[in-house]
Amino acid sequence: HMQAKEVKAEGSAPQEVLAPSPTLYVNNLNGKIKKEELKKSLHTIFSPFGAILDIVAMKTPKMRGQAFVVFRDIASSTRALQRLQGTVFIEKPLRITYAKGKSYASLRAEGQDVPMREKRRPEAGVERQQTKRGREELPPLPEPPRAPAVPDMPMPLMPPGVGEPCNILYLQNLPSERTEAMLQVLFQKIPGLKEVRLVPGKTDIGFVEFDNTLHAGVALSSFQGFLIKPGCPLTISFSSGH
After folding, report:
1. Which of 2, 97, 94 is nearest to 42 (CA)?
2. What is the mean pLDDT of residues 23-44?
3. The predicted structure's pLDDT at residue 157
4. What would the pLDDT profile of 164-210 be if each residue is shown by its tens digit?
5. Which residues contact 127 (CB under 8 A, 6 or more apart)?
6. H helix and E strand count, the chain
7. What is the pTM of this model?
């Protein structure tokens, strides 16, 4: 036991504690993904936690593998940070912290006047604020209470062709290296997850069971088209027809 503790102490560098912010700084992203595809996939996994004002991802060498996700409020960004930290996203674990400065999307949402030049290039604004404005402008805020990942909500509007809603989802187009643990990590963001089942001898399909139809519907709308790995968008339907 002593040995394990020593190893852990060496491996965990002290992290700078930042004041909570509606904007999250996300890094360790897969640099091979196209910018628009990356933004869409980030929106898919972050949107269950609250309203997103903006997602900024750049392909410049300095900003490769990094993005900013701007939520409307701190409660949403905090839920997302707590639930998604370390989740494997397109083959790499997410590293998430609060951003140091407010993004222009946040300032605009608060009704502050933002120069037109900055409006056209929100990413430059975020990067500049990240490096120059520092933390002193954000007074420390009390940690919001831990809220469920998905508040009580009506059944999301389902796209055509996903079958009659029920509490079990049918997954297709899974990558061959998928594991039950990998799918468990992904789907446990939604409340009510009961079981993940892979089909022996069939590498590309699986089932995910929830405690009720509502939670299954939220999971379907949240993760439809999710890229578990590049070129493998997840196809989800209700299992009623399978």
Report:
1. 94
2. 88
3. 63
4. 889 999 999 988 888 888 888 889 888 889 999 988 888 889 999 99
5. 58, 63
6. 8, 10
7. 0.44
Q: Which two tokens stand for residue 3?
A: 């040995």
CB under 8 Å, gap of 24 or more: what pairs does 60-64 form?
63/123, 63/127, 64/31
What average pLDDT is seen over the chain?
A: 75
φ, ψ at 89 (rounded to 5°): -130, 115
What residue type is assigned to position 107 of the chain?
L
Question: Is residue 58 classed as helix, strand or coil in its secondary structure?
Answer: coil
Which residues partner with 193 through β-bridges?
Answer: 210
Which residues have C-beta within 8 Å of that of residue 89, sequence separation ≥ 6? 29, 30, 41, 45
**Band (221; pLDDT cuts 50, 70, 90):** confident
Helix 35-46 to helix 213-223 angle (10° resolution) is 160
Q: How far apart are CA 130 and CA 25, in angstroms?
A: 9
Please tell me the distance from the alpha carbon of residue 72 to that of residue 53, in angstroms, as a whole number. 6
Q: Which residues contact 199 (CB under 8 A, 6 or more apart)?
A: 205, 206, 207
